[in-house]
From TrEMBL:
Organism of derivation: Streptomyces avidinii
PANTHER family: ADDUCIN, PROTEIN HU-LI TAI SHAO
NCBIfam families named among the record's database cross-references: PRK06208.1
Protein name: Ribulose-5-phosphate 4-epimerase/fuculose-1-phosphate aldolase
Family: Belongs to the aldolase class II family.
Taxonomic placement: Bacteria, Bacillati, Actinomycetota, Actinomycetes, Kitasatosporales
Domain Class II aldolase/adducin N-terminal as annotated: residue spans: 33-209
């Protein structure tokens, strides 16, 4: 049997690594800027549908408070100054606009159950919603989809409204959740990672639907899928993969 290739450490690929901040203020400013950039990127990719969709990012100092986009504002126009700081009970602590209370309650429940998670993404995409309508998981039929192999879950019920604790429980320890008849939710240890997982899950759903329409997809076997996930499925790998995308909307100021 040929030797397995040894992965090259990400830090040796010439990419800038996630920054380490000396102060809470610097960490907060960076997190808010990345959150605003991510919202603008999702707008560019067509992942806002009316008032639906949120990204939340845990505040680096007040761990039961989260930065979030204001209700009813277009993602594409948002800057860091527009973001709200909202506590775990849905009260706006900083900012002059309202938050989507029902959607935020789901994010807060996920953050509470997963203290290591920095960001939660719940946005709209046609392929993720189509796969959710089928009540299916992402199949390991491409290298990219293998990043989610045995690392995402399905909430296989629809109640007509988001249920915070049930959603958080269904997510469990994984990076992504398919909400049947609703769409995708992803998490990460940075805004960049969480948004990358959302975009990758949406793309993987697209390929899966196309492949099924064309014929019978051939899955990657368990061992190879697990090895691929170990190589490409970390939040650090997601952070690196996201950087070229964020250049589309990164602030130049």
């Amino acid at each position: 049997m040929p030797d397995q290739p040894v992965p090259v450490p990400v830090e040796r690929l010439g990419f800038e690594m996630p920054p380490v901040h000396d102060t809470v203020e610097a960490a907060r400013a960076h997190r808010k800027e990345r959150l605003a950039e991510a919202l603008r990127l999702l707008a560019r990719l067509g992942h806002q549908d009316g008032v639906a969709g949120q990204i939340t990012a845990r505040d680096p100092e007040f761990e039961d408070c989260y930065w979030v986009n204001p209700f009813g504002r277009a993602f594409g126009a948002l800057t860091a100054d527009d973001l709200l700081l909202v506590d775990g009970d849905g009260r706006v602590v900083r900012g002059g606009r309202r938050v989507n209370q029902l959607a935020f309650a789901v994010h807060a429940a996920v953050h509470r159950r997963r203290p290591e998670v920095v960001a939660v993404v719940r946005a709209q995409g046609p392929y993720g919603r189509a796969l959710a309508a089928l009540g299916e998981l992402l199949a390991p039929i491409t290298e990219e989809a293998c990043a989610f192999y045995e690392d995402h879950a399905l909430l296989d019920e629809y109640s007509g409204a988001d249920e915070p604790e049930r959603t958080a429980l269904a997510l469990g320890p994984y990076k992504a959740l398919i909400l049947r008849n609703r769409g995708l939710l992803t998490v990460g240890d940075s805004v960049d990672a969480a948004v990358w997982w959302f975009i990758e899950a949406e793309r993987a759903a697209q390929v899966q639907l196309i492949a099924r329409a064309a014929g019978k997809p051939v899955p990657v076997d368990h061992r190879a899928a697990a090895l691929t996930r170990e190589r490409f499925g970390s939040d650090l790998a997601a952070w690196v993969s996201y950087q070229p995308l964020r250049e589309l909307v990164a602030s130049t100021s």
